[in-house]
């Protein structure tokens, strides 16, 4: 798995089919354009190669910070086209929109992955950090985590995902508006109370990463067809009506129920052994 690592992202297999992906841009994992492009590159490569990943844990290499958010020193690069005074306002805006959509697509990479992505958050998780974890399947936080939706303090509305995901995740529009408008810090305990994270782990980076890896290992022991299909259908349910999701699930499972993983589960249960499932991607015979 190390071959998927980049300059600022470390990728390793910490257990069979379980990957740890660590953000590692000193000093505080501030996101420059190159950093978020690398982030997408890692996910795209894992997906395109059909790497046998059953669960991925996303964390930081640095004990005191998950991410400080956008690299403000690099932020001017995002607006370079918009600042081009040879363009009129409409054309400059279209250029800026193109950049923002590309940024959103990169940070949204975990949702496109066929495997679950577990965010193991600790230390400071600021601004873009909320965008990143909002798109992950599961969120664990160390008790020392401090969160903040910080964009208002630098003069803009969050635009990479927080406002799309957080109201749906928490179901508390009042609180999300408060946190967004004030940019105030909030704790792991408050994040758990509103459902932003599903578990608070006492301690810091090491403790939360350990807990997330244990969860990932347990998920990895399940049928990858079942887990991947469940991820896809849960996401579909979030964005569609109940009736639409039931109809879609019927079509999806009409094919998915033909998996050999069901027979493998029955076989293993009968002889009291752990089932052995093949990877999602079947090697090509061509």
From TrEMBL:
One of its GO terms (cellular component) is mitochondrion. This is Delta2-dienoyl-CoA-isomerase. GO terms for biological process: fatty acid beta-oxidation. Pathway: Lipid metabolism; fatty acid beta-oxidation. Keywords: Fatty acid metabolism, Isomerase, Lipid metabolism. GO terms for molecular function: delta(3,5)-delta(2,4)-dienoyl-CoA isomerase activity. The lineage of its organism: Eukaryota, Fungi, Dikarya, Basidiomycota, Agaricomycotina. InterPro entries: ClpP/crotonase-like_dom_sf, Ech1-like, Enoyl-CoA_hydra/iso, Enoyl-CoA_hydra_C. CDD domains: crotonase-like. Gene3D superfamilies: 2-enoyl-CoA Hydratase, Chain A, domain 1 (3.90.226.10), Lyase 2-enoyl-coa Hydratase, Chain A, domain 2 (1.10.12.10). It comes from Crucibulum laeve. Belongs to the enoyl-CoA hydratase/isomerase family.
